[in-house]
Amino acid sequence: MNIMLFHSTYGPRPAVGAAADRLRAAGHEVWTPDLFEGHTFDTVEEGMAYNEEIGKDELLKRAVLAAAPYSERGLVYAGFSLGASIAQTLALGDARARGLLLLHGTSDLAPNVSVDGLPVQLHVAEPDQFETDDWLSAWYLQMGRAGADVEIYRYAGAGHLYTDPELPDYDEEAAEATWRVALGFLETL
Fold first, then answer.
1. pTM score of the predicted model
2. Strand order through the sheet with 99-103
3. Is there a contact between 160 and 128 (Cβ–Cβ < 8 Å)?
4. HEC profile for 138-149?
5. How do residues 122-139 score in pLDDT, each as one tens digit?
6. Exposed / middle / buried, residue 187 (Cβ in 10 Å: 0-12, 13-18, 19+)
7. What 8-state DSSP symbol labels residue 12?
8. Helix 56-67 vs helix 44-54: angle between axes, to the nearest 10 degrees?
9. Torsion-angle region of 20 (φ positive above 0: left; ψ -120 to 50: alpha; else: beta)
10. Which of 8, 124, 134, 160 is the most exposed place for a label (fewest CB within 10 A)?
């Protein structure tokens, strides 16, 4: 499978490279575009401030330019938190998308978006300060109406970015469970 994996608001940290290596070891081709041009951050607040400085339109432009050379291959879009929201936007706009793997995040849906059975898998903490229960319920219904085939996995007690071993949110058990399920999902695409 060809996977476009987007980093979180922390930037292209080692955990993104480790995730890409894990995916490659399972036989996938993976690209990890650097939407922050080398900047990484130690706190979510610093990353969000930089994200706001760049602006959503510029980030999406960078993501589209990174994915464009590979989209004809039929990409699986994937991402961590902010990167998941970017992956969702690109996947819902790419008729060739093979799947969508969301880790720790979702995004608003564009009005009248429509996909034909796009396989989507979401992994989030429970509770998650950025992905509240009400938000996830509404998001799930909207994705279903758009035509996506959605699975949601929740991890009780884990922190928001629980797959990054260098962050306080890290939860080894939840992270390993996430990767086990996600790798199985990718094998079905």
1. 0.96
2. 29-31, 2-6, 75-80, 99-103, 119-126, 149-156
3. yes
4. HHHHHHHHHCCE
5. 999 999 999 999 999 999
6. exposed
7. S
8. 80
9. alpha
10. 134
